[in-house]
Amino acid sequence: MGRHELEYPKDATNTVKRHDERASYALRTIHELINGSPILHISFNIEGSPFPTTLPMLGQMGSFARPSSSTGDSLDLYVHGYVSSRIMNMGRKHTSEDGQKTETGLPVCVAASHVDGLVLALSSFSHSYNYRSAVLFGYATLVTDVEEKNYALEQITNGIVPDRWRHTRLPLTNAELQSTSVLRIRITSGSAKIRTGNAGDERDDMQNDELRDGNWTGVLPVYSSIGTPVGSDYNKVEVPAHVSEFIEDFNRESREYCVEAIKKK
């Protein structure tokens, strides 16, 4: 019997209401969308300001207590930034003196999105995107344990290029560790929303031969690709296997997904 797929419980915060058939609450689906996004947008409220703040940040899902956990398990989200940045200072205020998680922490919302195709229909109203999006809700506190901080930075580094951490100068210096802070976001809920398939139009438009004869419909696949590496001015080595293999896998998987997504209903 296969392993049960864990899901975030639906509540008033994370429930997808429009096109709920596109929703997913599976931890694996959501966590992989978060980990696969080069930029995460973290939103939080600032006391005394009428506007929420949204920051682009790097982050990865993980569990310091259970480092062998998969993306289908309950995980925290780690993000890093400059030690005196506003979000780090606010996270610090929500962290107990011994560095443990507080009951609440700084409330944050995390968003990630991927565009996989431009859907062109007969009607402008029926135009759309093929996309994958995910949101997480949780509470952020500052990571003060040095081992957990290094664990988080390793996850984030390997989230850029797999296995990159051990191909860098280690350990990090005290100055590097002191100038960088890490937030651990304890996730309380999340959801994903995914659109696949080809174009679709209203019945009246589909039955209008003149309209169909004069307008192209379909999907323009959109996928990311990594170009040829360009070495630094001081580089002395050939492109290593962990980089070249990552480029090959990334480009193939990115293209294959968006093409296959068009075929799905």
Automatic annotation (TrEMBL):
A Pfam family (short name) is Pyridox_ox_2
Q: InterPro entries in the record, alphabetically? A: Pyridox_Oxase-rel, Split_barrel_FMN-bd
Give the top-rank taxon of the lineage listed in the UniProt record for this protein. Eukaryota
Write down what this protein is called.
Flavin-nucleotide-binding protein
Species per Swiss-Prot/TrEMBL record:
Emericellopsis atlantica
Phylogenetic classification of the source organism: Eukaryota, Fungi, Dikarya, Ascomycota, Pezizomycotina
